[in-house]
Design a protein that fits this description.
The protein is mostly helical. The chain contains 5 helices and no strands. The longest helix is centred in the middle third of the chain and has 27 residues. The termini are far apart.
């Protein structure tokens, strides 16, 4: 009888926690560890900057220099939109806890690539509009 009681929440005869105690301690533990407020603010700032520069690039692609290379502008805009959507989806899955913590580094690299691609497109569209 003491084994049954211990199994559902008390200590076992050897002093180890029962099933309920081990489950409750694993549920209360954070999945990815605690992140401090500073890290969260830096991640939000990077996300805001990435979305801002991608949005301004999309607007620039649709408005500047479209009379010369409209097809190329549309293709580059769709490429940027695809890269932005996959980055957003990956970030959303990471925030939900569906992905391993190491994916955060891939998110940083992908955000850097998105920002670099946006800057490249700004330069290209600026040079294309001068023709």
């Amino acid at each position: 009888s003491s084994g049954i009681n211990a199994e559902y929440g008390g200590l076992l005869e050897d002093g180890s926690p029962g099933v309920r105690d081990s489950i409750s301690s694993s549920v209360s533990a954070p999945l990815f560890g605690e992140t401090d407020t500073r890290t969260k603010y830096l991640q939000r700032a990077l996300a805001f900057f990435t979305v801002f520069i991608a949005a301004t690039t999309m607007i620039t692609a649709c408005t500047v220099g479209t009379q010369h290379n409209a097809g190329l502008h549309v293709f580059m805009s769709l490429t940027l939109l695809t890269l932005t959507a996959t980055t957003f989806l990956l970030a959303m899955w990471y925030e939900e806890g569906d992905l391993h913590p190491k994916i955060l580094y891939i998110l940083y690299v992908q955000s850097g690539a998105l920002i670099s691609f946006s800057i490249l497109l700004h330069v290209y569209f600026g040079l294309d509009s001068r023709r």
